[in-house]
Write a structure and sequence with these properties.
2 helices, alpha+beta
């Protein structure tokens, strides 16, 4: 049975900066589930994507011609079992957003705004990074991914087998430099504090003496109360 060809859903958002290249980029996500190997042809003005899914029995294919040029060498990607995520750096640094993603202004049925990542142009300075788990803790420019398996030495797309990026820069976001062994020491510090608190506590001998004195002090009270009780009984009778 021959497979069909499907145009995948494409979502996008953007950031812009006239002074910081790493904050001047496009978020682009191509929805292509269960695709083991993909073919991406990224150029300054266009991106062509093709990927076959055996489970879906279809070949995903889409060609995009951008509104303006991007910096191919400083653009990155992350491939998961559900989609392919791109951070495409804009070549021209400007404060203004691109008015649209594509060169043509006509509406494309497969292209949608990624509202989960979109922020208004005047609110982007306070917007947090919104990267997949495999890219967490890295700047938007993804400069730190140059050494990943399958990536070219320049960190770009040349000779890259994107199917190898599924387990890319995994791990917990923001914890790349943390020595996990230090976490064990953290617990030990808390135990030492508890021990110090115990050492500062007064000895228990004084408490025993207070309790003994209190117990002895109660005996006369009991003896003194007996005549009073007898007198009351005599008065009643």
């Amino acid at each position: 049975m021959s497979s069909t060809q499907t145009t995948p859903e494409v979502t996008w958002a953007q950031r812009s900066s006239a002074t910081d290249a790493e904050k001047n980029f496009i978020y682009l996500t191509i929805s292509a589930p269960d695709v083991a190997k993909i073919d991406v042809d990224l150029k300054p003005t266009s991106l062509t994507f093709t990927g076959h899914s055996d489970t879906k029995k279809t070949t995903y294919h889409v060609a995009l011609e951008f509104y303006a040029e991007i910096d191919v060498d400083n653009s990155k990607t992350h491939h998961t079992s559900r989609d392919v995520f791109f951070v495409l750096r804009k070549k021209e640094q400007k404060e203004e957003y691109w008015p649209r993603l594509l060169k043509e202004s006509k509406k494309m049925h497969f292209l949608k705004t990624d509202f989960d990542k979109w922020v208004d142009e005047d609110e982007q300075d306070g917007a947090p990074e919104d990267l997949p788990a495999g890219m967490g803790g890295m700047p938007p420019g993804m400069g730190g991914m140059g050494g990943m398996g399958g990536m070219g030495e320049d960190g770009g797309f040349g000779g890259l087998d994107f199917s190898k990026l599924g387990g890319g820069a995994g791990g917990m976001p923001g914890m790349g430099d943390m020595d996990m062994g230090d976490m064990g020491d953290m617990g030990g510090e808390g135990e030492d504090d508890d021990d110090n608190d115990d050492e500062d506590m007064p000895g228990l001998e004084g408490d025993d003496e207070d309790k003994t004195g209190a117990a002895k002090g109660k005996e006369p009270e009991t003896a003194a109360s007996e005549p009073a009780a007898k007198s009351k009984i005599e008065e009643v009778s």
